[in-house]
Amino acid sequence: MQTIELLSPAKNLETGIAAINHGADAVYIGAPMFSARAAAGNSLQDIEELARYAHKYRSKVLVALNTILTDEQLPVAEKLIKQIYEAGADALIVQDMGVLMLDIPPIALHASTQTDNRTVEKVKFLQDAGFSRVVLARELTLKQVKRIKQQTDVELEYFIHGALCVSYSGQCYISQAMTGRSANRGECAQYCRLPYTLTDASGKELVRNKHLLSLKDLDMSEHLEDIMNAGVSTFKIEGRLKSIDYVKNITSLYRQKIDAILEGRPDVKRSSLGNTKIFFTPNPEKSFRRNATDYFIGGRKWNVKQEDRGEDFGLSQLDTPKSLGEKLGKLVGASRNYIDIATAIDINNGDGLCFVDASGQLTGFRVNSADRLNDFRVRVYPADKVNFAKDAVVYRNQDHEFNKTLAGKTSERKIPIDIQFAEIDAGFSITMTDDEGISVSLSFDADKQPAKNSEVAQRNIVNQLSKLGNTIYEATGVEVSTRSDWFIPSSQLNDWRRIVIEKLDEIREKEYKRPHRREQKEGLKFPETHLSYLGNVINAKAEAFYKQFGVEEVLPGFEAKAGQDVPLMYCKYCIKHAMGWCPREGHEAHFEEPLFIQHKDEKFKLEFDCKKCEMLVHKA
Predict the structure, then answer these.
(1) In the chain, pLDDT over 70 holds for what percent of residues?
(2) Pairwise CA distance, residues 125 & 121, whole Å
(3) Start-end ranges of CATH 3.20.20.330 in the chain?
(4) Alpha carbon distance 376, 363 (integer Å)
(5) Are strands 326-334 and 339-342 parallel, antiparallel or unpaired?
(6) 314: closest CA among 211, 452, 193?
(7) I want to staple 620 with a disulfide (CB 3.0 to 4.6 A). Which of 366, 379, 497, 603 is the partner?
(8) How far from the centroid of its chain's Cα atoms is residue 437's Cα?
């Protein structure tokens, strides 16, 4: 039977627990150091506490230690990995192959998306090298994912929601080249989110001051069953820097959608335990996102006429790299004190609204008050003076009422247990059995007093044993089996229930089994004999790793030795295609190549490999 895991991000312990409570089958969290999000490191104590909590629901905790490491850092990483394992983590997400050459415990290893996992050959190698899971590149189409699954038996993890890098993960060096801050070492300066002016070789200006490399955010919510059918076992939400409200909202969204699919699929089950109740209506537009795209899941969209390239077309968000949020409608009137918006959506006092002004800049303001004029028009009184653009599209990027909802109790996750209460010679016994079949049975000596009212006595037993509100359990039923009707004080039943629950907790904790490392196969060969700077090798152990598998030449990674005139970005996204200038679609160039993008005094040359359908970015 296929097992499906919903994997949520955890910025910290609090967010990780929230993700579990809202239905995550697993969470991934940054290690104390060497995480690809340097700002999202966590203490070993917090990782241990999160693992203990997650394992109650049989959810897993994956720890990201996915930067490339220097020779000096490897001994530190080796010690840290042992501590992470001792803290109870289920798996380690890594990029640096030098880690596999260290003396580390048998913790399961996952190949980070930073290892650039796009081909059958690469995924098969990682599988045979000892990785139990491979995190696929975001750029893969569904057909490519299916092809990989058909020829491998490793777990496949696929991004379903969140921010998109314009470059293939692990193949972006622009931040390192321009600032010395390496994306492969968790310190990306986000050059893809900057505004650029596009010019041709003659200096002709083609596009001015737009966010040409800033992609929309991923949203695969309408493709989940297709992704399941392609063989993906783990559905990953991006966002280890995102807020707890984001994690609550987006985890809840996908928990409900996946559960709806599983209800009609007896051949598929979730990987953890517990019934999750969500007490609000999830809405991805109310959390941070740069509009939405399903990226390349269905392949590149070809031959779309310019007049059909509306707001929802395309992969990039040209006007701003910030969150726009929920589209409300157009500005249809304004005075000195208020604006009128054509919308059927209610606007609340305290909301944050935004729009792109006449100069192309995103402008935001807080709502002081709002009045509905009719079914399709709302009058808004801004808290501050704002220069409004005629016919501007207005968005809500902060929903005051929604945020208030998220601040309250928004979920409940309970593990079903069956309870049996029986009479024994010396007193009574209570047996509790969970969904896994783990059972505990305890006997209690007691003086038996006949009940004056048998119906009340029976109901009291059921009621008291069912009171599991402050535990992780819920009773699916209480079976009472006694030879006579006995009066048992509620306080006594409560004490017995508490003792049995504590014992069940203890046994379940001992019964939890972490996944083990996959064994490395003999006679393994890397798919290539030459490894360029794209291999991201900056330590001797990583070099030795590749050479033992037939790689004859391993060049140093960009962070160790910057190459001259090498591409700084490798992108499946293409500016020509985005602008409707793709030569493969038969468009004739109205410019002189090469093309350049420039931000302030930093200029980059674009190279288009039309055979591979890729765009490369060089320092000009």
Answers:
(1) 99
(2) 6
(3) 2-164+216-278
(4) 23
(5) antiparallel
(6) 211
(7) 603
(8) 31
pTM for this structure?
0.95
Q: How far apart are CA 115 and CA 86, in angstroms?
A: 26
Q: How many other β-carbons are positioned within 10 Å of the β-carbon of residue 305?
A: 7
Strand partners of residue 516 = 107
Give the tens place of pLDDT for each residue, 265-316: 999 999 999 999 999 999 999 999 999 999 999 999 887 766 666 666 789 9
Q: Would you state the structure tokens that stand for residue 190, as one six-digit string? A: 């986000």
Helix (H, G, I), strand (E, B) or coil at 521: coil
What is the pLDDT averaged over residues 130-154? 98
Whether residue 41 is predicted with pLDDT greater than 90 in this model: the reply is no
- pLDDT tens digits, residue range 332-361? 988 889 999 999 999 999 999 999 888 888
pLDDT at 391 (0 to 100)? 85
Best CATH choice for the domain 2-164+216-278 from the list 3.40.1390.10, 3.90.1150.10, 3.20.20.330, 1.10.3720.10: 3.20.20.330
User: Is residue 143 over pLDDT 70?
Assistant: yes
**Mean confidence (pLDDT) of the chain:** 95
Buried b (16+ CB within 10 A) or exposed e, 322-351: bbbbbebbebbebeeeebbbebeeebeebb
Mean pLDDT of 142-147: 98
- List all residues 6 or more positions away from 400 whose beta carbon is below 8 Å from its beta carbon: 348, 349, 350, 351, 352, 367
Per-residue pLDDT tens for 513-533? 999 999 999 999 999 999 999
The CATH 2.40.10.170 domain(s) of the chain lie at: 315-407
Determine the topology of domain 315-407 in CATH.
Thrombin, subunit H (2.40.10)
β-strand partners of 16: none
Instruction: Dump strand ranges (E) for 213-256.
Output: 217-219, 234-237
Looking at residue 309, its pLDDT comes to 66
Q: What is the average per-residue pLDDT within 12-35?
A: 96
Contact status, residue 34 vs residue 77, Cβ threshold 8 Å: yes
What type of residue sits at position 93? I
Distance CA 277, CA 256 (A): 9
**Among 44, 49, 41, 54, which residue's Cα sits nearest to residue 12?**
41
Closest by Cα among 597, 594, 614, 603 to 202: 594
Q: In what order do the strands lie in the sheet with 569-571?
A: 205-210, 196-199, 595-599, 602-609, 614-619, 569-571
Angle at 595 between CA 592 and CA 596, to 5 degrees: 140
